[in-house]
Amino acid sequence: MAEDGARNEAGVPLVEAIREAIIRGEFVPNQRLVEADLSTQFGASRAAVRSALLELTNEGLVERIQNRGARVRAVPLDEAIEISEVRMVLEGLCAAKAAEAVTGEEVRELQGIGRSMREAVSGGDLLGYSALNQELHRRVREIGGQQTASRVLERLRGQNVRHQFRLAMHPGRPAVSLPEHLAIIDGICTHDPEAAERAARAHLRSVIEALREVDAQGPGHRL
Radius of gyration over alpha carbons of the chain, in Å? Predict the structure, then answer.
């Protein structure tokens, strides 16, 4: 674990700050992560940076190369598909649990996210839609309350989120995934665990197919 209390100058935990920088694409796959540079960038000690990089290595976001230090781990397509296959099972479980546990207030919240997703797609706001996508999946996990599945999914998210983000930016993809997300919301909000699980699994199958299709289009389109 990173040093207790290790935070950047903005007060964000150092591990979280570096993790989010990787996820947002500030550091690209295979880019070296130099401790001295990160120490300056995040306003933290080199010891804290080293500890954070070790934790991120354990999460699968960073890899350490002998005699060359740390770098952002590039997740290949076949591994991204495997991760999505595991997510398909666990996201389905969480959606079913959410349908059983959802409250009236949470129903209104999920429906509000659905409306915002519709607006983002109709307005061509791909970044906004991508953020709402992540928010929806997070809230489904939280509402479902399956802590073990949630921890595994959060870890997998870190490894696969760059594929997910770039897929969301792919032309035409949001229009495909929007009804899939709305079906998940509908299943949960109508307290139908089977429908919610079925919708979540169908969405992840669609993600897997889209990953393969985008990769098959050639180097100019690869994730």
Answer: 18
